[in-house]
Design a protein that fits this description.
- The structure is a single chain.
- Helices cover about 30% and strands about 30% of the residues.
- By secondary structure, the chain is α+β, with helices and mostly antiparallel strands.
- Strands 6-5-7-4-8 form a five-stranded mixed sheet. A four-stranded antiparallel sheet has the order 2-1-9-3. Strands 11-12-10-13 form a four-stranded antiparallel sheet, covered by helices on one side.
- The chain is elongated, with a radius of gyration of 20 Å.
Length: about 260
C-alpha cells in the first residue's frame, strides 16, 4: 500500500483495494475473477511508455474505462535522523530511479531496483541499515513509519504518470472522449501511412502512437493508437478495421486533465 498505483486507484474508483507486486498479476487476477477492476500505469511523461502494460493489453481481452494523470512527487525516505551524505544505496522501482537519476548521481548513491516504490520502503526498513534509503511517495513513508529525508527529488517537476482503469467489460461514454486501439498491418511499403491517412481524412487528432514488437513474429510490429473522438470516429474505426490484418479496440473513455497533487 502507498504506491503511486494505489494513490491513483483511490482517486479513480471507490472500493476495496488489493495491492499486487506485478502488472502481470493484475491481469491474471482479473482472469481468475479475483478482482473486478485493475489499475495499471501506461506511460510516464519523463520516462515514456510502460511496455509491460501495453503487452498485456494486447494479449488479454480487457478494456480501458478510465484514464488518470497523477502528478508524481518523489521523496527520499529513510531512517530518522539520517544525513543524506551517509546514504550509499537507494531502492525503488526502476521508473522512479530513472526519474530521480540526477539526484542519485549527484549524491553518489547506488540505485537498486525493486518491484515497486512503496515496497522498497519495507525492504530498507527490514535491512535496518541507515546506509540504505528508498524513493517513494509521502503517503508510503507514513504507512511504513519512516522519515522523509528530502522531498521533490525528481529530475523534472512536470512529472506525471498516466494510469488506466481496466475492466472485463467494455463501457461506452459520450462527450469529450478518447479511444484506444491496437492493430497490425501487412509488412509492405505505405501500409502504416495508409492507416494514419484515415485519421487525417476524418479530422481526428491522434494523441499517442506506440509500436511494440510481435513476439511470435520477429521484426514485425503492432501499433497502439490513442485518438480524440469526433463525430466521425465510428467511420474511422470501420476503415481502420478493414485496412488492417489485426484490429482490436481497447476502450473508449473520458479524457482526463492533469492532476496537480501528490
Amino acid at each position: 500500500m502507498g504506491a503511486y498505483s494505489n494513490i491513483a486507484a483511490k482517486r479513480m474508483m471507490a472500493g476495496e483495494y488489493v495491492p499486487m507486486k506485478f502488472i502481470k498479476s493484475i491481469f491474471d487476477s482479473m482472469k481468475r475473477n479475483e478482482i473486478d477492476y485493475g489499475v495499471v500505469p501506461i506511460e510516464n511523461s519523463i520516462e515514456g511508455s510502460v511496455n509491460e502494460t501495453y503487452d498485456n493489453l494486447f494479449n488479454e481481452n480487457f478494456y480501458v474505462v478510465k484514464e488518470y494523470f497523477l502528478r508524481i512527487n518523489h521523496c527520499l525516505i529513510g531512517f530518522k535522523g539520517t544525513e543524506i551524505d551517509a546514504i550509499k544505496c537507494v531502492h525503488s522501482h526502476p521508473q522512479a530511479l530513472a526519474q530521480c537519476s540526477d539526484f542519485i548521481y549527484r549524491n553518489n548513491m547506488i540505485p537498486i531496483s525493486e518491484y515497486d516504490t512503496a515496497g522498497s520502503i519495507n525492504i530498507i526498513k527490514n535491512l535496518k541499515n541507515v546506509e540504505h534509503a528508498a524513493i517513494a511517495s509521502e503517503l508510503a513513508a507514513g504507512i511504513y513509519n519512516m522519515e522523509i529525508l528530502k522531498r521533490d527529488i525528481e529530475n523534472n517537476k512536470n512529472n506525471y504518470t498516466r494510469f488506466f482503469l481496466i475492466s472485463k467489460k467494455e463501457e461506452e461514454f459520450t462527450g469529450n472522449t478518447r479511444t484506444s486501439i491496437v492493430f497490425s498491418t501487412e509488412n509492405k511499403p505505405g501500409a502504416l501511412h495508409k492507416i494514419l491517412g484515415i485519421f487525417e481524412k476524418y479530422g481526428i487528432n491522434m494523441s499517442k502512437i506506440e509500436s511494440r514488437p510481435v513476439k511470435y513474429n520477429p521484426f514485425n510490429y503492432i501499433y497502439f493508437i490513442d485518438f480524440e473522438d469526433n463525430q466521425y470516429s465510428k467511420n474511422a474505426l470501420d476503415d481502420v478495421k478493414n485496412s488492417t490484418s489485426l484490429f482490436k479496440k481497447i476502450g473508449t473513455y473520458k479524457i482526463a486533465g492533469l492532476d496537480s497533487n501528490i
